[in-house]
Amino acid sequence: GMQGDRYVFKVLSSKMAFVGSVGTGADARNCGSLRLHTYRCGRTSEAAERWGLSNKNGRTHSNTSLQMVVSKDAGSKRNAEIVNDNLSSDVHEVKTELIRNFAIIAHIDHGKSTLADRLLQTTGTVSSRDMKKQFLDNMDIERERGITIKLQTARMRYTAKDGKTYILNLIDTPGHVDFGFEVSRSLMACEGALLVVDATQGVEAQTLANVYLALECDLEIIPVLNKVDLPSAEPEKVIEQVEELVGLDCTDALLASAKTGLGIEAILERIVRQVPPPEDRSNEPLRALIFDSYYDPYRGVVVLFRVVDGELKEGDKIRFMASKCEFDLDEIGVLAPKHTPVKKLQSGEVGYLFASIKTVADARVGDTITLANRPADSALPGYEEAKPMVFAGLFPVDADDFNDMRDALDKLKLNDAALSFEPESSSAMGTGFRCGFLGMLHMDVVQERLEREYNIELITTAPSVVYRVKMEHEKHAAGIAESEGSENAGYVMVDNPSMLPDPSLIEYIEEPYSRVEIITPEDYVGTLMELAQNRRGEFKDMRYLSQGRTSLIYEIPLAEMVGTFFDSMKSRSKGYASMEYSVLGYRRNDLVRMDVKVNGENVDALSCIVHREKAYNIGKDLTKKLKEVIPRAQFKIPIQACVGAKVIASEHLSALRKDVLAKCYGGDISRKKKLLKKQAEGKKRMKSVGRVEVPQEAFL
């Protein structure tokens, strides 16, 4: 009530009382929010109802962390909002037409995660006390590198200007090219997407890639120009770019700054107005799409899903249609963004479930959840397994760490369905694992997590891709070729160069190709075209964009992309160029295996598959580098690069030599010859029995 120029309020629950006051008029406009004083009190709920702070069931919110948010508009209207860490159990009771499912898509570093932070803060989902930067990025490595790796989801409640309270399900997606698979499956759970473009950088390569994914999923796209508060922002030019390149109508594009909070309310209003609600199909048999799953060490696998048809209730028995596994539900709920249990989830809602699932292999991403006793006729379309594209050998520096490394990879595999590994033995490196990854960043992240979280020092061999080998006769392929029904039926798939069959038995070898789009300022077009052509790239198209930028499109073998291509592109363009790639398929090429011999012994870990025309240059560079890192011995060491039996490049490491003539002062020449001959015989004998240890730096 009013006491002079003060607006006094009391909020009561069954256990606690909250008492405070705030100024009216000009004071109210200057006041944002304040924490209330807390007192123990007796039982009463009438006061809370009078203040509009009870929920739909008439119960008061009994949490001890309430906050009064005072309207900054002049006048007598005051809005009380609860900032609640644990949403009440009735959060799921909502009409389908009030649900909005949307994702945020953008290039790396254009502000996806920061925008997600502001949305969570503005809707009161996360209190200012609990807020931290990149709230939805859970791994330390994500925060340090400034990238999102595992997608996250959060449920928000927002009261729009039309007076209705909407449920907004936000899905924060990865932006890096390696994790495009994560982006595509999260978009399948949405009806709309915020396309975030940096107003200082403009349209980048992955902006386009993500937009095409969203358009394939038939999503409503809302363009948002972020970072408009920066002095270098050029929103008019960027809007022109988006319209020209993406084909979106940007006459009403939203200008925002996720850092300062500018334009966040307008984004929320646009989501409510423009993103269509999900179809209400609650009467159909249950079908729910799994868009992510991760392992919790205490409760097993947590499955994140979107209910498409029907409804899911606590205690139901469910079946995963691809893996054919059945489980009894332990708990279902929503992420707000903490786990909040509910009784049921209906068509259109996004939630999580626990069902004592032991491994993510049972709950594969893209799989369909249905009821065991009333299954759906068909699964939802779009299910496909993640295919590793880049392979590398990971070996522990200390051989005693092998079992620890196996355990560590098993634990990472629980959370990462795209990671594959199998034991591998190398004469040069000992025992380790051959691991498959989505791309170079994925490999880098897994390697860093093994070293940081599990304290295992690693040596990594040069990454390679999967080659497809056609044998001359079927009898040679027996037992090693892919089985019938597979897209690679009849071919031998080789992910390790040392496992390539004998060249005399091979008819031809195919390698995967990728379509690469590079967006760069015009100044660097020449040097980047040279880079692409040096990597066996086939020029396809070049487009001049606005703002002095150019798009180059090449088709390049994937083997040329792994390794240093990205670093070379960044260094040649002074960091301004960006790229996006997609795998096209296999093409036949003149490929050979190049082996490296040190002192006549084959070092299998250094073998690689290369194009015949480039074998000499690669062999020459490799032998020169090995000459620098292999320590000299008492005998001469030949370092050779070979294709089959032919040596194509070689270097010689000269022997360490003791001066055996130092004690001879003049005298007969025959005495000196005798000593030199004796030394030469000793070195010859040493060479025949001596072994050269290739140091670990040689493999890096």
UniProtKB/TrEMBL annotation:
One of its GO terms (biological process) is positive regulation of translation. Pfam families: EFG_C, GTP_EFTU, GTP_EFTU_D2, LepA_C. It comes from the Eukaryota. InterPro entries: EF-4, EFG_III/V, EFG_V-like, EFTu-like_2, G_TR_CS, LepA_C_sf, LepA_CTD, LepA_IV. SUPFAM superfamilies: EF-G C-terminal domain-like (SSF54980), P-loop containing nucleoside triphosphate hydrolases (SSF52540), Translation proteins (SSF50447). Gene3D superfamilies: 3.30.70.240, Elongation factor 4, C-terminal domain (3.30.70.2570), Elongation Factor G (Translational Gtpase), domain 3 (3.30.70.870), P-loop containing nucleotide triphosphate hydrolases (3.40.50.300), Translation factors (2.40.30.10). GO terms for molecular function: GTP binding; GTPase activity; ribosome binding. Keywords: GTP-binding, Hydrolase, Nucleotide-binding, Protein biosynthesis. The keyword Oxidoreductase does not apply. Residues 97-279 form the Tr-type G domain. HAMAP family: LepA. Belongs to the TRAFAC class translation factor GTPase superfamily. Classic translation factor GTPase family. LepA subfamily. This is Tr-type G domain-containing protein.
